[in-house]
Here is the input.
Amino acid sequence: MNDDPPRGLGCATKVVAAILFVAAIALALLGRAGCGPCSFPRKVAGQVVDETGQPVPSADVKLEWSEGMGLNWNPSDERRSELKSDANGRFSGRGGIMYFGLNARKEGYYPSRLDVSGEMPSDSLRILLNKIRRPQPMVGKRVKLFLPIGASSLQYDFTAGDCLPPHGKGVVADLEIEWTRLEVMGAEASRRAFKSRINGAGNGVIPPGETSPASPSMSSLRSLHEAPAEGYEPSCDFGNHMRGGSLVAYVRIRTGQPSGPLYGKMLDPISYWAAGDADEFEFEYVINPTGDRGLEMDMKHITVPSKHRLEYAPDEF
Here is the structure.
């Protein structure tokens, strides 16, 4: 009896084997490109710098990621790697495919974190560490306003932390918002439904400006401790599209008044929602009440003129 397989079957077997071999190579390449499981971690490299752009050597950099995705994630999937910046502030390692976070610390600096997504380049990252120099006592608040339906404008006092009458007990109209309530609210419609401005000659806002390609969610103004003397514009119409990112704007109020000018910062400046029973506004800010342009925050000495606490770490501003 002839035990050799038919010639056609032998050819088919070879074809299948070749297909499987090519598929295995393709899957490996996809994994290395970030399209497969996290058994092929991506390269992570960058530099730790201070607010002037100078390298920070010997900084501790912790790389964290998860090998699970979405509903498949569990704590056992977490991975960590301890790195150290060299004499030029540079570091390198390997981490998760899609998302990971970098935490940087060094004595004499405020800690900082950078979150990196799959779409961002991961081999030229910049982590900012702000020097601890001269922390300032600040006035700050996380503002949540609920206005009755039918209202179309409000004025807000930054140092009092309240609206002016009839919506509150504020005294100086630092910020003014006018809006038109819409029946159908989307993110873009919400942003266009209101206009905001800082009142008074010489007062205004410097918007966040260009962001870094390595970190598109980070404002180019985020790391500076001292407010600029000039460059403020009255309009601050940069609403809901800013929410969710570490985008910081400078603000100047009360120029020409005995107590002014006063300088501060806003984070995620202004958001608006047309709720079922009210119009809602939300924004966050800090103001230096001394008139000094220094905006380095001492979190232990922040006056919050409301029941809502400001709980952000100093590096957020």
Q: What stands out?
A: The mean pLDDT is 77.
